[in-house]
Every structure is written in C-alpha cells, then in structure tokens.
Amino acid sequence: MKTAPLAWVALTAVLLGGCSAYRWEQPAPNSDRSAPVNQDMTRTKRGNPPFYEVFGVRYQVMNSSDGYRQRGVASWYGKKFHGRQTSNGERYDMYRMTAAHKTLPLPTNVKVTNLDNGRSVIVRVNDRGPFVKGRIIDMSYAAAQALDMTQAGTARVEVVALDTSYTGAIAAVSATQPAAGKSAETAARAPADPVMTDLPAQPRMYVQVGAFGEVTNARNLAEQLSGSGVNQVNVLHPASG
User: Fold this and answer.
1) Range with the lowest mean pLDDT among 79-88, 146-155, 203-212?
2) Which of 23, 68, 131, 233 is the most buried (most CB within 10 A)?
3) Virtual CA dihedral for 119, 123, 128, 131, nearest 10 degrees?
4) Do 213 and 183 share a structural domain?
5) Do the bridges between strand 108-114 and strand 57-60 make them parallel or antiparallel, or are there none, so unpaired?
6) Average pLDDT over residues 127-154
7) What CATH number is attached to the domain comprising 75?
8) How does strand 69-77 pair with strand 155-161?
C-alpha cells in the first residue's frame, strides 16, 4: 500500500486487515489514576540550582514565583517521557496535570489558559523545559487534552503562578471560572484526580501506515511511531464480515 507522509496528517492509524469498517482498540493508560497528585509545595533540592545551561543557553531559576504572569506558546510532551524522572525527582505521568517550565521554582502550581478557546487548567510544574525557542511551558498529555491542543501541538497561552499556599485541585477549570488566585482556590476544588474535559467530536482523516495479520506486529509499529513523537497512533481491527 502506498501511504501519505506522516507529516501530512493530523492523526495516524495503524490498521489490521483490509476491510473498510473498523472498531477502536483504545490504549490502556499504565498509570494509577487513583494516586493523588503530590501537593507538597516545599521547594525541592533537585531541579532548583541558581542557574543551569542547556544547548549553550544559561537559565536562571527564579527565587520566587510570586506575581509571575506570562503569555506565549505552550507545547506538550507525552509517551516518550512517561515514567521517567522529572527535574525535581518526581515521576512524569502523562495522565496527570503537570507541566515543565524553564525557570519557575520546582514545584509551582500555575493556571494555564488557552487564549484561543478560553479553556484553563491548574497544573503542578515539576520539570524543566521546553528548550525550544519561543515556547514558555510544556504541558503533560492530560493537561494538553484539557486545553484542546494535542492535535495542533502548540497553543497560545497565559501562565499565572498561584500563591504557594494554594491547596486546591490540580485539574481542568471551566472557561467561566475566576482568574487564578484565592478565587480560583474556591472555584477549582475537586478530587485530586485529573479532570479531563470531554472534547466535541470533530471530522478526522485517517491514514493507514500498515496492515498486519498479527496484532502484535501492529502494536509494535504503533509503539515505534509513538516513541518517535507521532501523536494519536491507533491500532484498528477489521469489523467482522
């Protein structure tokens, strides 16, 4: 089969067989979503040097997040880093509401608002990055989904640091809720589990990148594509008949 280059598609599907109708096989998250997000806001020894250097650029870590507010471009990171240690020694879980920032103290709770659709999330910054020019924050997969930015890959956002005494939920916040601060503390109280915002169904185009008789081979290719940064790779089964 002749396939279109992956770069041309927003969503890539790995297919089993040659029929035209399919049923989804959703990947199962390999994290314990019932585990609470770490709410200890004590500044960690790891990840908070006075300064550090990456790719020849020196970054100075802020002494305090008080009053921090910035607009810029957000990106997100997912499966490739899932389970790895973050800069402050925690484990990155792509299904939790966390983020990476170059200079904020670790950890810091911030409210991130997608300026294009008004969606907001409150996340725990526990990692460093993104080290790409023009980007100010890297969201976890869960946070990026709540902001509706996973397919685009980036979004224009506003990042506001919450007071260090904030003990509310690390979760999605509706677009109509108050701005960050004490008012957000009351508005965002919810269970500590990530709250994923359901997104409306949108038309999508699928491109077949392989056809296999064995499901294991299809899953292996899906893993390789995901590990290479190709988002939303799915294994599909032929419908019976």
Assistant:
1) 203-212
2) 233
3) 0
4) no
5) unpaired
6) 96
7) 2.40.40.10
8) antiparallel
In 3-state terms, what secondary structure has residue 58?
strand
Contact 47, 106 (CB under 8 A): yes
69 in the same domain as 182: yes
Cis ω for the linkage preceding 194 (within 30 of 0):
no
Q: Are residues 210 and 121 in the same domain?
A: no
CA atoms within 13 A on the CB side of 121: 32
Q: How far apart are CA 17 and CA 237, in angstroms?
A: 7
Phi (first) and psi of residue 141, to 5 degrees:
-60, -45
pTM for the full model?
0.59
Within 13 Å and on the Cβ side, how many CA atoms surround 39? 12
Residues 59 and 161 in one domain: yes
Query: What is the residue range of 142's domain?
Result: 51-187
